[in-house]
């Protein structure tokens, strides 16, 4: 069952669309602005975003650009403007499709189904490569490639910890759980500190330690690996 996130500040529209999408077997979620969008992405495995251009605070075009820096989740832009420039700009920002308001809900369903079908035919990551939110982890070489194409080397302990996180995205992992899963024979006393390893891994992922977005701390519980789009993870030992 695909999860669809409808982002529009008009509650009548989000209520109508979420109820309508449910009739076609989708699990629909709603958000009215950028912060609510981010909260929904953190809480649910969203498969597609329906994103209005005109939003309070950060507009939809800016949000689309920010999303593309972190994830490949497909986006359908909604615009009430007649200017075709907005549609072109939305596509340039990374949207997969667009619709002009007003529109028939059934047409939106058809667009969603079409985009999801196209997504399903995209090539999977090569064997041994796991992609998440624009990053690529190469299992054999044990290094990362950033969204800008920069190769980031990893220590054995950092690789094992990241591999463990990739197997449990968006789930709270205790320190003991991470230690058990990520433990390796060559880990020395210094590397056995999960907190230190998390700090090092955040640095490699360019994750702001003051306000991390990829590896989040859950006070009293552990950590959450907040990747929204993990592709190519096949499990197994690191």
TrEMBL record:
The keyword Cytoplasm applies. InterPro entries: CheY-like_superfamily (IPR011006), OmpR/PhoB-type_DNA-bd (IPR001867), Sig_transdc_resp-reg_C-effctor (IPR016032), Sig_transdc_resp-reg_receiver (IPR001789), WalR-like (IPR039420), WH-like_DNA-bd_sf (IPR036388). GO terms for biological process: regulation of DNA-templated transcription. The keyword Membrane does not apply. GO terms for cellular component: cytosol; protein-DNA complex. It is found in: Cytoplasm. The modification 4-aspartylphosphate is found at residue 52. Pfam families: Response_reg, Trans_reg_C. Residues 127-227 form the OmpR/PhoB-type domain. This is Two component transcriptional regulator, winged helix family. It comes from Paenacidovorax caeni. The lineage of its organism: Bacteria, Pseudomonadati, Pseudomonadota, Betaproteobacteria, Burkholderiales.
